[in-house]
User: Fold this.
Amino acid sequence: MAMKTYSMELLFKALADRTRLRLLSLMGEDEVCVCYFVEVFKTNQPKISRHLAYLRRAGLVAARREGKWMHYRVATPPDAHAARIFMEVRAWLREEREMQRDRERLQQLCCAPRPPVQLKRAPRPASLAADAPRV
Amino acid sequence: MAMKTYSMELLFKALADRTRLRLLSLMGEDEVCVCYFVEVFKTNQPKISRHLAYLRRAGLVAARREGKWMHYRVATPPDAHAARIFMEVRAWLREEREMQRDRERLQQLCCAPRPPVQLKRAPRPASLAADAPRV
DNA sequence: CGCTCACATTTGCACAAGCGAATATATCAC
DNA sequence: GTGATATATTCGCTTGTGCAAATGTGAGCG
Assistant:
């Protein structure tokens, strides 16, 4: 299971950035569409894509295409030690205040009666798709 | 026990450097004198001091002065999550090949019948002090 | 006191990383 | 095919980080 070539630095460099930590926190256990990240962070889209690519290279997220949309979800890194540490990191993220605020904001965007224009047709995160009002 | 202001980035930035990981690995459970790091890595002394200062700012090591010598040891970061993660990191370090080689090299330097000039009078790491031959 | 030793800090430079703006790619609608 | 939408990548630019060399600090010795 453990992969010899996976380096500790690769993991820690990926985790040593606030934006990337916030992205991981927003994913939680769900798949999330890129456009939601852009809305929650109120930032430009290339910035999000760049950080997601970084996380993917470190084996911390995986991507799935659905038509025009890309869904990202947290993945398990190939090294056993890295996987254990990453689990602890995600537990930590769940308890951090700023991270909680981000997730609340994501929830509001998904369930808003009049979602922002950019999200009109965007597929919602899996856990919010069922009960959220469709446009 | 958990300290609110301790940031995740502080921890991961400290861990995202090979030299700092090697330093942590060399300490293991002991106090180690700065001069040993310099010898094991065969590098200049300011480089070691800078990285040790970085680790100290991140709460990952503590220092103790003994006359002219400074001894560094691994410390427990003030945040509970950080402490758990740091424990896993140290377990990982114990299994990494390059890190093992560093520790073997430290052991050789301590127990050598004719230690390098720079270490003639240096205090040895605690676990090696008892059985190692004195000069 | 001055001198040496062990370590810390500063300085200047090269390189890596994050940024926004612009551009490229890929899919869908027509 | 064209055009629109969603995402990825590239391009300068700025900032941060690690480095070696030089300098500073603090303790012990004579």
